[in-house]
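Same chain as my last thread, 255 residues:
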Amino acid sequence: RSMRKIKVLVPMSGPDDAFRQKGYTYSKNLIELHGKPLIQHVYENLSRIPNSEFIFVVRKDEDNKYHLRNVLKLLAPSCEIIVADGLTAGAACTSLLAIEHINNETPLVIANADQLVEVDLSDAIYSFEQNSLDAGTLVFDSVHPRWSYVRLDEHGYVIEAAEKRPISRYATAGIYYFREGRLFVKAAMEMIKKDAQINGVFYVCPTFNELILEQAKIGVYKISRDAYFSIATPEGVQVYEEHLKNSYSEKVGAK
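reply #2:
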């Protein structure tokens, strides 16, 4: 199955105060898990998407201090790196800093830099393409208000998206697909124009609401709750480390 070239945009310029307070020396993106920095785990996870071309948005201070650009170029030599001068008003705004690379007809995936999914992402993207969707997202079962959510109609299409508000049991796993990058750009600009922010932050998930107003066809790819790991907090790091340790012991045991 051949898929078209696809841009994979990773906005990684969010704050990491929680990690500093816990005494971590390096920024969240560079926390080591099983001998690899978090961003390497994230990149290896996302690079399962075939024909992917990576774009990373990094914070200037983090790049200057830790040579993040070098790290990323070693992982993905042909990636584009965009430097944000400081914190932005959320992932949707950070993603728009890549506008010159994404405001086109090439498919786009936007993925958080502080999460991992243990599923074959090429299957997910393939299913979105096979179903001729305008947009899509991975979802897992939850009722906790810390996630983004989508509500589905009886045919399984998204009819509403909400941030930090459980409007269904379909929590999104922070990976968003758009059939064309320009669909995201237009939707994000509309959302910002309407000031549809949550506590001053513009998220990617609610851009789906703008697409829904245009009668876009948006679908989901369901994954199990234990296939999703959020590493947005020091606690999340511990949970994932524990998981890696257990998986490693199981593999060794199996031999």
